[in-house]
Queue: 2 jobs
Job 1
Amino acid sequence: MNIQDHLSRVHEYFSPKVIGEVNDVYVKVAKIKGEDIPWHNHTNEDEAFFILHGELLFEEEGKEPFTMKQGDFYVVKKGVNHRVSSEEECQIMLIENKSTAHTGEVESQVTRSIEEQLK
């Protein structure tokens, strides 16, 4: 599997696409640009971020914002409010339980269902 091939088929920012699965976990890719992701959390699931290309501003409640760069990996623990943004296009890989809702309990214009992520 070539991850760049999968990323070339991602045409909307903040719209993760499932590219594989391992047991009860989805592996997803997404492109991030802008500040459209709302503050949210995942009550029962951790969420892993791996930066494939570019830079991602990561904000987590109770911590100083930090910038993730290509090759960086970070795990957000369940229940922790967070959001991400990027001035320029950033390509990421997400590793999430199959039950993880895109923007947690928060609905916004960028929220995508699992069904939409599987297309």
Job 2
Amino acid sequence: MALTNNDIFKKLRVAHKLRDDDIVKICALKDFKVTKSELGAIFRNENHPKYMECGDQFLRNFLDGLIIHLRGPMPPKQEKKPTNK
């Protein structure tokens, strides 16, 4: 019995004590637009008529945004100066 993307998303939401507003802001960190109604559909029971499956892209963008939310933005890379020998 494998976990679905919806199960993983629900567990992350509970573990980090996130509300719908928080998730919308986290997704916005990756320029991924999501609405509260979409979140409601994802968090519904599978048997509910308005249930929506959480796709791979949705979960990936949320996880990338969560990394930025928890760690902060990635610092810009420094260019290596060529060494003269």
